[in-house]
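Task card 7
Instruction: Convert sequence to structure tokens.
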Amino acid sequence: MKSKKYILLMLLSALWACGGSKVSPEMQEAMDTFETAWTATGADIAAWGNAMDTSFMAMQEQMDAALPLEGGAAHAATIDSLHSICISIGERMKMIRSSYDRTSTGFQQDDQAYQNWKEMLMKGDISETEAQPALNDFNVKMKSYRDNMNGWMTLTRQLQERCEVTCRQIELLSRS
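Output:
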């Protein structure tokens, strides 16, 4: 098995040396690994956008059903507090949406930049030595996109929990 692997590696190296490919097998493997993870990140960002829309719509419907709250003077302070919480939830949903939109646009731009970079590398317009830092930067960007997504998920879960608690409180108050 080792001899087959060695022979394959020698053949790939020979092709690379003869100009059959502008990148070494090691660089090609690093790019393939990156591209697999990058494509998955793009799909996850799109899927998160759909999940976010669904969650935000459900929260908005829940708040719309609970408000406006009528409770009279006896409950005025509580009503104001619950209403303020609902407003805050709505503002945070807008903040997450805005962050998502900027990130989604940034991902598309970075995807195009990666495709341009890859084309230059494959043509031999840039060397692997010059290309490696850029590939490292794309990996850093991918991690940042994933970190953003994880942050949105955490914040959205917190908002959903707060919305449910607040709407339950509104429902109980409206019964009293």
